[in-house]
């Protein structure tokens, strides 16, 4: 495997950033991340150990989607992209924690941002949950075979989406920032999906109580959320199955 470039070498090839300073940040499982401080601006630089493949976007696909979102005020701009290099504008603001979802005004603002996101042009790549599930399952040990089968059965039994939209597909609180308008971070999973998957992620990942989930639905549907509660529950069940597989696969990788 080719050794990834150093951040210094990456910056040397980006006009205007040659003399910037670097501060290491905690990164994901497959990339290293730095805050880049230029003369009058900041950026975030990610360098991948290898080129991205499904279920992730390639970095070029991610840049196209994020750039569209940025033009609509939903993301920070992309400054530079390569096969395994990604640099975006650093966004000053308040990154949400789980407690932010306890506030009615925050849920209302989030619902409006989600409606805006789901009205963006289609990306041309559809979320393949079954493929992602099988990929995660392939990394999990045999001790969990029954649970793995149950999760895959849940995922494969879900009907095709009623309405494909541009979705973020990873809307955990840490990927939501108030700057002061709501913007979304980390578009590596973004593609066309059922818009309820984004709503289910918010509800299921943060274990929102029924009252909070209903408030979010009502805000998204202008007070008409009640008729969608059963469908959201189906998506929550689906999300929980996929999350369990992802967590087990991640735990297996971290143990090696």
Describe the structure.
With 256 residues, the chain is α+β, with helices and mostly antiparallel strands. 41% of the residues lie in helices and 16% in strands. It has helices at 7-12, 59-71, 104-117, 129-137, 145-157, 195-205, 210-220, 229-255; strands at 21-25, 31-37, 42-48, 78-81, 85-89, 94-95, 165-167, 176-178, 182-184, 191-193. The strands form three sheets. Strands 1-2-3-5-4 form a five-stranded antiparallel beta sheet. It has a three-stranded antiparallel beta sheet with strand order 6-8-9, covered by helices on one side. Strands 7-10 form a two-stranded antiparallel ribbon. A hairpin with a 3-residue loop joins strand 4 (78-81) and strand 5 (85-89). The mean pLDDT is 92.
CATH architecture of the largest domain: Alpha-Beta Complex
Q: How do the helices and strands follow one another from N- to C-terminus? A: HEEEHEEEHHHEEEEHHH
Q: Based on CA inertia axes, which overall geometry fits?
A: globular
What kind of sheet is the major sheet? 5 strands, antiparallel
Number of domains: 2
What is the spatial order of strands in the main beta sheet? 1-2-3-5-4
What is the fold-level CATH name, i.e. the topology of the largest domain?
Answer: Aminoglycoside 3'-phosphotransferase, Chain: A, domain 2
| Secondary-structure class | alpha+beta
Our estimate of the beta-strand percent is 15-25%
Oligomer: single chain
Number of helices: 8
What would you give as the CATH superfamily of the largest domain?
Aminoglycoside phosphotransferase (APH), C-terminal lobe
Helix content: 40-55%
According to CATH, what is the class of the largest domain? Answer: Alpha Beta
Mean pLDDT: 92
Distance between the termini: 19 Å
Low-confidence stretches: none
Structural Rg: 19 Å
């Amino acid at each position: 495997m080719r050794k990834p470039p150093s951040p210094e070498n990456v910056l040397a090839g980006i006009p205007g950033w040659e003399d910037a300073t670097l501060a290491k940040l905690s990164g994901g499982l497959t990339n290293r991340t730095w805050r880049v401080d230029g003369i009058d601006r900041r950026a975030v630089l990610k360098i991948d150990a290898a080129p991205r493949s499904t279920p992730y976007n390639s970095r070029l696909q991610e840049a196209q989607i994020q750039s569209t979102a940025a033009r609509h005020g939903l993301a920070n701009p992309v400054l530079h992209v390569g096969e395994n290099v990604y640099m975006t504008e650093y966004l000053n603001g308040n990154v949400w924690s789980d407690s932010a979802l306890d506030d009615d005004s925050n849920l209302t603002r989030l619902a409006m941002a989600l409606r805006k996101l789901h009205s963006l042009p289609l990306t041309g790549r559809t979320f393949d949950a079954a493929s992602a599930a099988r990929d995660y399952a392939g990394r999990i040990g045999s001790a969990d075979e029954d649970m793995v089968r149950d999760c895959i059965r849940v995922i494969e039994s879900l009907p095709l989406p009623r309405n494909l939209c541009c979705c973020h597909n990873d809307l955990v609180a840490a990927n939501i920032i108030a700057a002061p308008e709501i913007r979304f971070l980390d578009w590596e999973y973004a593609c066309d999906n059922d818009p309820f998957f984004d709503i289910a992620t918010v509800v299921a990942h943060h274990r929102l109580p029924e009252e909070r989930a209903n408030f979010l639905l009502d805000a998204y549907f202008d007070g008409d959320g009640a008729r969608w509660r059963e469908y959201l529950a189906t998506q929550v069940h689906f999300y929980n199955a996929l999350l369990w597989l992802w967590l087990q696969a991640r735990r297996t990788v971290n143990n090696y």
